[in-house]
Amino acid sequence: MIKAVFMTILTGIIGGFLLLLIEYIYIIPFFTPSAILLPPPISKACQCTPGKIFSEPLRYGGFGPEMVVLAAGHFRIGNDHDVSVSRFAISRYEISFIEYDIFAQETKRHLPNDNGWGRGNRPVINVSWHEANAYAEWLSQETNQRYRLPKEVEWEYAARADTDTHYWWGNEIGLNMANCEGCGSLWDNKKTAPVGSFAANPFKLYDTVGNVYEWTCSEYEEKYTETGKEQRCLSKHNSTALRAIRGGSWYSGFKFARVSNRYRFLPDSRDYNIGFRLVREIPKTK
Fold first, then answer.
1. Tag placement on the chain: N or C end, fewer CB within 10 Å?
2. Is residue 229 within 8 Å of 185, Cβ to Cβ?
């Protein structure tokens, strides 16, 4: 009797082991996320050809934001205002709390309020234009490269991604393509979503529609003019001029998240609707 029970247990153990072995060798490799969705290769230095993704090492340790190189191009901003942009790199994601908090701790700045939504990979909020600009300056020192906020034309060029529709995927907001009021996501009109929660645009950028408004380095003007303020960066010493913000937020109606929509804020303002992404300049080759 005891021998029969022992043999039954032993047979079960051997059978279970064989099943696990078969699953490990023949089944699991086809269903693990890493086998299905392999991330694009990331260079530790900018090879600076269009489409390349890179993340530069920092002096203190670790790496800066994940950037993608965009080719020079031109497009129509507004109804009839043709503009051109030079080649540049831009962060694929809105700058997150985990990235900004490292800077704040290294420079002994206050940590921005997360509004009770959590930090980590959520987009940093409640940072002024000057604080976003300071982060870009710190990153420039850490990498010995030139980082800054995007010009308004650079932001729209990157967000449009060679499209001419209200959103990079078309003229209708659709369902669960972004985080905004009426976008159909689980975060709509409630709070920010973790960066990269939705599909990337054709330029490999995430969250150019909704989630948080994004600071640009450009002065806001009601209409585009020949003076081209949208093509320039304001000095950090100009503390009164309105700055252009782009992209809409989790709180915005979807019409305000269209790629052409513009709004403005004073540079000292902080808001739970506003974050930012960065540009890394690429020197022109001779």
1. C
2. no
Cα–Cα dist 215/260, whole Å: 15
Chain-wide mean pLDDT for the chain?
A: 88
Q: Output the CA angle 241-272-238, nearest 5 degrees.
A: 15
Helices 129-143 and 97-106, axial angle in degrees (round to 10): 80
- SS3 state at 16: helix
Residue 225 lies in a domain: yes
Cα 74 from Cα 97, distance rounded (Å): 33
How many domains would you assign to the chain? 1
More confident residue, 235 or 8: 235
With H, G, I as helix, E, B as strand and everything else as coil, classify residue 181.
strand
237-254 tens-digit pLDDT:
988 899 999 999 999 999
Residue 31: pLDDT band (50, 70, 90) is very low
Give the C-alpha separation, 179 to 162, whole Å.
Answer: 22
Q: Which pLDDT value is given to residue 210?
A: 98
Residue 31, in any domain of the structure: no
Give residue 98's Cα distance to chain centre.
13
- Domain interval for residue 194: 53-281
Question: Is 137 within a domain?
Answer: yes
Q: How far is CA 38 from CA 35, 69, 119, 182, in A?
A: 6, 20, 26, 31
**123 close to 211: Cβ distance less than 8 angstroms:** yes
- The sign of the torsion formed by the CA atoms of 48, 196, 247, 99 equals negative
Q: For the purposes of burial, counting CB atoms within 10 Å of the CB of 175, is it exposed (0-12), middle (13-18) or buried (19 or more)? A: exposed
Query: Which of the four pLDDT bands, split at 50, 70 and 90, describes residue 181?
Result: very high
- What is the pLDDT, as a whole number, of residue 21? 45
Q: Is residue 77 part of a domain?
A: yes
Domain at 132, CATH number: 3.90.1580.10
